[in-house]
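Lab notebook, bench 4. Still working through the backlog of constructs that have no structural model yet. Next entry is a single chain of 262 residues. Request: give me the structure tokens for it.
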Amino acid sequence: MTRPRVSAASLTAVRHASSTAGDKPAGRVVVITSGKGGVGKTTVTASMGYGLAMRGFRTCLIDFDIGLRNLDLHLGCERRVIFDFIHVIEKNCRLNQALIKDKRLERLSLLAASQTRDKEALTEDGVEEVLDELKTQFDFILCDSPAGIESGARHAMYFADDAILVTNPEISSCRDSDKMIGFIASKSLRAKEDREPVKQRLLINRYDANRVKSDDCLSVDDIEEMLGLPVCGVIPESAHVLTSSNMGQPVITAEGEKAAVA
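Model written out:
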């Protein structure tokens, strides 16, 4: 069975569908989340953002992992962080002062998390105000969420239009993703206001077809059946992901690499 592989392309389709003739739509807020830590959310966020910017979409990445930021490392801009997300929320700087433009793609920007504060510094009103301003400047706002349902994760998903749930092809990862699916469906702003629900999709990371054949991990069909959501992308296991992260380059930039193609 042929499977979708480029999740950035699926988001661009959503973007076009949300617009009307002669009307410029507001930016889409997309949360990249999971129930389990270490599944590759930040790697996915960096590469997905890069892919959207390459397609011509103005894209902003926000790191919601307050106190434990990593997205700046994946983009290679850690030495350029002066102001951060919390500085903006607390009115210590303007939003445009905190946005870091990628040196490779002018349409890609980062709003870094604070490294010195904790997640309780996030406020619902503050996050909403920042997102509302970003939606006037960008086509996509990708929110890199901490795992689980702590404060950073709750704020990351609350205002989402779309959710990408990153899961690994293993039982424990899928079970935790199942909890997140229910949480997003019931606790988002869209659910609270009884609007069209957050559009949720699965992205399977670290997929190994050989291990599937030997029944050492779950297949795409197994995961779809277990979680009841469509799969928008499958990223194969690749040693190059770690190399790219250490170099501060999204894996999508690695020419010819299987994970980059996915």
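Notes after review: The first strand starts at residue 28 and ends at 33. The chain has a mean pLDDT of 88. Flag for follow-up if needed.
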